[in-house]
Fold this protein.
Amino acid sequence: MADLTGKVALITGAARGQGEAEARLFVERGARVVVADVLDEDAQKLVADVGEDRALAVHLDVSDPAQWSSALDAAKSAFGQVDILVNNAGIYFQGPITETPVERYRKLIEVNQIGVFLGMQTLAPHMAEIGGGAIVNIVSVSSFAPLDLTAAYASTKSALLAMSKAAVGELGPQGIRVNMIHPGGVATEMGAPSGVVPQEYDNAPLGRIGQPREIATVAAFLASEDSSYCSGAEILVDGGWTVGTRNPWTTTR
Ligand SMILES: NC(=O)c1ccc[n+]([C@@H]2O[C@H](COP(=O)([O-])OP(=O)(O)OC[C@H]3O[C@@H](n4cnc5c(N)ncnc54)[C@H](O)[C@@H]3O)[C@@H](O)[C@H]2O)c1
């Protein structure tokens, strides 16, 4: 079980979904957590729930460089330093290329792609100063196995994958590890809006959608010293979806 005692983690998009599960688990494992999100009320509720000595809610729109700088300042004044950055915040859109408003696409790029870039840009100098750190980027199976109707979203995740890999070589010499998680379908507002789980998940080898805590446990591993020699690792957390393709020549399993 990954131990995060004494660590401080800044988690973006932590007010709900996978980010919330990560925040709760990281606190359980001994970390103090900065709950960074645009959903201020939900972030405050989460902090009240896990304890104000363990967590801090910070308003952060990841696409705004000035807000990143304020978030780091707030984290440092509350907890002294930040050892772990989980770039989890993301937005989704699906629709045909011909019907995707370019402004929607630009917004996806701003949040999913530039948001993570700014996170690494803001936190890396601080982590280098304190002797190292762990960055966990929440990418997606869409980055390498995009479904139809996801050209805009998937391309931001592919860019994030390349960006994360480039960061491995750049930040490693400063003691900063950069690792990636590729969730498949996860039961959050994004993966199962209003709690509706598409039947498609029955076809995944594990036969179900993933739960947010199943991403959080992997994030805790990558954030902890248990993965001290991992940088550039990509962990699939998709119930076998992208690898376990059924053999089309068989009629039974
Ligand atoms: N749910 C899935 O099926 C799935 C699959 C693959 C990858 N992912 C990725 O996992 C991550 C988490 O998604 P989720 O499933 O928890 O979705 P979610 O919609 O439940 O949560 C996303 C969180 O990000 C926050 N957010 C959105 N825009 C933001 C911004 N500009 N600044 C700061 N916070 C912002 C939201 O307020 C929300 O709290 C995302 O990066 C997503 O792309 C999700």
